[in-house]
Design a protein that fits this description.
Blueprint: H1 33-36, E1 52-53, H2 56-68, H3 71-78, E2 114-117, E3 123-126, H4 138-143, E4 150-153, E5 165-168, E6 171-172, E7 184-186, E8 188-190, E9 194-196, H5 202-210, H6 216-226, E10 228-230, E11 233-235, H7 242-260, E12 278-281, E13 290-293, E14 298-301, E15 304-307, H8 311-314, E16 317-318, E17 321-322, H9 323-337, H10 354-386, H11 392-397, E18 417-419, E19 425-427
Parallel strand pairs: 2-6
Antiparallel strand pairs: 1-3, 2-3, 4-5, 4-7, 8-9, 10-11, 12-15, 13-14, 14-15, 16-17, 18-19
Helix pairs in contact: 6-7, 7-10, 9-10
């Protein structure tokens, strides 16, 4: 039986209403990211921590344990919430072949875990089963493809020098290290890189000022280079000078290349010879405690030792939290919890995994390179603060402001069907 036609918003209250200051372009901090990339989505909420893990093997083991359990034990392991129980009727995740029958009847194989961005600069694994995710944000899954870039805002912490946004090709779960989840803004509103998520009229206005080379990707690069947190929202000042725009876009493209981490043919982050981190002592089964030795520029994980680790990499913070320290602590905690505990989260890696060492070396390189670009970002910010820029009046005259409400909602997708609950189909 055909299912009911669904709206493009995907249910579940996915789309974010604009903040009070957004859309106006007013104030000394504006324009705001919400003016430039108006469609935003709240972060995903899994509702059960066991659906995510730093390694994929643990997720497969958790699934097997869950589907083999019965009765009260299966209910306890599933960890039901108000949004998801074993009897919830749930549609398939867009673009995924997952089952849609009630999970209480599930006995099949584990769906293949997918790589997701678990907060800034941390890549983890997720079980892509809508029945396990409280709020999956299906409109994000719908536009996630090889052409998409996700701009992720970070929670604002006063006086924190960390970046206001980051970018990823992976589906972001929006996790924030400081407990202040920001918005997720896809660069494109439709699959295939079609229809940029930019305010109507913005591209023509910017091309009239800076030249025909302004593309959606150039705008994303500028956002990476120039965005800064403010009490009124994520501010993205626009310069009056075309040369300043070109300077910022060049810097932003370098930031983008690094943060892509090898995706789409980009080079993986790599420090120059003599500065690259190496394993000086292998990380053992017990990698705790995590200690940074600034004098030796070494990162110690139990008996393991990684060096050289630049101070800039160790001190790189997002929302006031050291990225490298948090990344290590998540994995050392996984090792420590593997021998005991209750529930599916106790099913974890038995000791430090070799793949984590490779990921750690790359993360050190990435953060060191990003820290090395920070002086250029600070110089750009100082120049933008001292020079005249494009203000609200010019954006209004160009028809960019106010942003129409339709631009803040997901685009309609009418060219394919998606499986609804219990095998029904919905036209979206």
């Amino acid at each position: 039986m055909p299912g009911k036609a669904a709206g493009a918003a995907g249910g579940e209250g996915d789309t974010v209403a604009a903040p009070a200051a957004a859309g106006s372009g007013a104030g000394p901090d504006g324009p705001f990211l919400d003016d430039l990339m108006p469609w935003s989505v709240r972060p995903m909420r899994t509702g059960r921590a066991w659906a995510t893990s730093p390694d994929a093997a643990s997720l497969r083991a958790r699934w097997e344990l869950l589907v083999r359990a019965g009765g009260e034990e299966r209910e306890r392991l599933f960890a039901p919430t108000r949004t998801r129980t074993q009897h919830s009727a749930v549609a398939a995740l867009p673009g995924r072949p997952g089952a849609t029958g009630r999970f209480a009847r599930e006995s099949g194989p584990c769906p293949e875990p997918v790589r997701v961005a678990h907060g800034p600069f941390d890549e983890q694994w997720l079980l892509p089963d809508h029945r396990l995710i409280d709020v999956a944000r299906p409109e994000l899954w719908r536009v996630a493809d090889a052409h998409q870039l996700f701009v992720v805002e970070h929670g604002r912490v006063p006086h924190d020098p960390g970046p206001a946004v980051s970018v990823t090709t992976l589906l972001p779960d929006g996790h924030s290290p400081a407990g202040r989840p920001g918005r997720v803004r896809p660069l494109h509103r439709r699959p295939g890189g079609r229809e940029p998520n930019l305010a109507p009229g913005l591209l023509p206005a910017l091309r009239a000022r800076y030249g025909d080379g302004v593309t959606p990707e150039a705008v994303a690069a500028w956002v990476l280079a120039a965005a800064r947190p403010s009490p009124a929202g994520c501010a993205v000042p626009l310069p009056a000078d075309a040369a300043r725009w070109a300077e910022g876009v060049e810097l932003g493209r370098e930031l983008l290349r690094l943060q892509l981490r090898g995706a789409r043919g980009a080079e993986r982050p790599r420090l120059p010879g003599g500065q690259r981190p190496y394993v000086r002592a292998a990380v053992g089964p017990d990698p705790a405690p995590v200690v940074y030795d600034a004098e030796e520029r070494a990162l110690r994980l139990g008996a393991g030792r990684i060096a050289p680790v630049p101070v800039g990499a160790w001190e790189f913070r997002v929302s006031g939290v050291r990225v490298l320290e948090l990344w290590c602590e998540r994995r050392t905690a996984a090792c420590a919890a593997g021998a005991g505990g209750a529930g599916l989260e106790a099913v974890r890696a038995r000791g430090w995994l070799q793949e984590w060492t490779s990921e750690l070396l790359e993360l050190v390189s990435l953060l060191a390179l990003l820290a090395g670009l920070r002086p250029r970002q600070e110089a750009l910010a100082a120049a933008l603060a001292a020079e005249p820029g494009i203000g609200a009046d010019e954006l209004r005259a160009a028809g960019v402001l106010p942003v129409p409400e339709s631009a803040r909602r997901p685009a309609s997708v009418l060219d394919h069907r998606e499986e609804g609950p219990d095998g029904q189909f919905a036209l979206l």
